[in-house]
Inverse folding.
């Protein structure tokens, strides 16, 4: 356990601490979905650090302390988290989520996020989406769904998000405080893309509902949108 708090790793420090053998979060017993999610959420960003400290109304302090002292702080301090620490968290999630397979089976990252953010910590949903003018829906992350497109061989995240929103007729109701995006995945047998290039910045201008945008013809504020 590392009870002292450490800031997220940035730039040269991130490369120095996280690169090399025995770095990252150690996998064990189908933990890859959780390892990758935790690494993405906490290693190099503080956007969700409220999960580690804030006394939410429904917050389980034991789970919060395991997440902070056994996983996030060691990751930021030494660049490595042992499988035992993640298993400790999985055991607590099994108790709280009434699902015995959290300690041995592979889960969808969205299932893990919903359990820990909603049921255990009591965090408000991070995203508000609307599909085709229907009722708004709240969620904690967005999973990219799309059909195979031949012109996309090695896409970047910006392209995938835009095309996924377009194909599902989705809009963001408001600018999210945190935009967690799950890449397309199709199990062990088939991968839609062999590689995806991370977009270091994400332009969500065209994804926002009723957002004022420039007309591509005259340059004034647009009044119509063509998909």
């Amino acid at each position: 356990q590392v009870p002292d708090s450490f800031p997220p790793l940035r730039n040269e420090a991130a490369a120095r601490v996280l690169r090399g053998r025995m770095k990252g979060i150690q996998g064990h017993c189908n933990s890859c979905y959780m390892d990758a999610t935790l690494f993405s959420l906490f290693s190099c960003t503080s956007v969700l650090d409220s999960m580690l400290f804030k006394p939410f109304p429904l917050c389980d302090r034991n789970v919060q302390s395991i997440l902070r002292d056994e996983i996030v702080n060691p990751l930021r301090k030494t660049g490595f988290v042992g499988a035992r620490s993640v298993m400790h968290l999985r055991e607590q999630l099994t108790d709280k989520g009434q699902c015995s397979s959290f300690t041995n089976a592979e889960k969808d990252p969205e299932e893990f996020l919903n359990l820990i953010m909603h049921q255990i910590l009591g965090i408000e949903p991070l995203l508000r989406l609307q599909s085709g003018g229907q009722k708004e829906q709240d969620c904690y992350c967005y999973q990219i769904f799309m059909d195979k497109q031949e012109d996309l061989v090695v896409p970047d995240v910006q392209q995938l998000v835009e095309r996924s929103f377009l194909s599902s007729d989705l809009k963001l109701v408001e600018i999210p405080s945190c935009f967690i995006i799950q890449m397309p995945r199709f199990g062990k047998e088939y991968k839609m893309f062999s590689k995806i290039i991370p977009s270091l910045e994400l332009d969500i201008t065209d994804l926002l509902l009723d957002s004022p945008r420039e007309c591509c013809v005259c340059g004034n504020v647009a009044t119509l949108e063509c998909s």
Observations:
- The helical segments are 11-18, 32-42, 50-53, 61-78, 83-97, 109-120, 157-168.
- The chain has seven helices and seven strands.
- The beta strands are 24-25, 80-81, 127-131, 137-139, 142-143, 170-172, 181-182.
